[in-house]
Structures are given as C-alpha cells and as structure tokens.
From TrEMBL:
Residues 47-121 form the Transcription factor NikR nickel binding C-terminal domain. CDD domains: RHH_NikR_HicB-like (cd22231). One of its GO terms (molecular function) is DNA binding. One of its GO terms (biological process) is regulation of DNA-templated transcription. Gene3D superfamilies: ACT-like. Chain A, domain 2 (3.30.70.1150), Met repressor-like (1.10.1220.10). This is CopG family transcriptional regulator. The keyword NADP does not apply. Keywords: DNA-binding, Transcription, Transcription regulation. InterPro entries: Acetolactate_synth/TF_NikR_C, ACT-like_dom_sf, Arc_rbn_hlx_hlx, CopG/NikR_regulator, Ribbon_hlx_hlx, TF_NikR_Ni-bd_C. The keyword Nuclease does not apply. It comes from Natronolimnohabitans innermongolicus JCM 12255.
Length: 133
C-alpha cells in the first residue's frame, strides 16, 4: 500500500475514533463488498453514468479503459473522453442491470493508476413511474 494512503488511513482513524487503520480497512472492505447489494435495484433496468479520472498521458490506463469499453460494449450507450486540468476524464453512460454495472465499475477501479471512479444510478422503471404520476 502506498505510504500516502497509509497516512490518510491513520489520519482518518484518529479523526473518527477508530482503534486503528486495520479497523478502517475492514470497514472499507465491507462497504466495497456490499456496495452493489441493493435489493431495491436488483433486477431493475438501470442507467448509470460513470466517470473515470486519471493522469493525462498515462497510456497504459487509457489502453485498459479502451479495452474495458470494448468488452462491455453491449451495455455502453455512450462514451466521451475529455481533459480537465491535468487529467483525462472518461464518461460512460450505461444501460444495464446492477450486476453488469457493478462488474464494469469494479474493473475500472482495479485499473492501476486510475485516480477516481464515480457513478450514479437511475432505475429506468422509476423514471416511468414519475411520468405516470
Ligand atoms: Zn486524454
């Protein structure tokens, strides 16, 4: 684990009265593993907007993100590549179920040197209900 991440874990532990960094890591692992366990959304047709930030010019990241885009092409409605300050930003719109979105987000997070992966989910059924009301 990188030294700066260990420092941030220690600071977070101290700030929030954890017994130590391993308790923070444990809770982080639990959160990560249950992140997509949402019975309200499982089985629903969903749309997701996923953003990926990484350092400008890190070709191995750009190559891997492109590979993932091709691998998950069946679920990707659109993809846009932009530059913000010194970062490349890939923005994906997906139309898929929770499992497929979870797999895609997980694979993006596992890409070495990716800075952040964020997403938002919308249940396409709930949009329909809003229109009916
Ligand atoms: Zn770029």
């Amino acid at each position: 684990m990188p030294a700066d991440l260990i420092e941030r874990l220690d600071a977070h532990a101290a700030e929030h009265d954890y017994t130590g960094r391993s308790e923070v890591v444990r809770e982080g692992a639990r959160t990560l593993l249950t992140e997509f366990d949402d019975d309200r959304l499982a089985g629903d047709p969903l749309a997701a907007v996923v953003s990926v930030f990484y350092d400008f010019g890190t070709q191995h990241v750009e190559r891997r993100v492109t590979e993932l885009r091709h691998e998950h092409d069946a679920h990707i409605a659109s993809n846009d590549h932009s530059h913000v300050e010194d970062y490349c930003v890939d923005c994906f719109v997906l139309e898929a179920d929770l499992d497929a979105i979870s797999t895609f987000v997980g694979k993006l997070r596992a890409v070495e040197d990716v800075e952040t992966v964020d997403y938002s989910l919308v249940s396409l059924d709930s949009i329909g209900h809003l229109q009916d009301a």
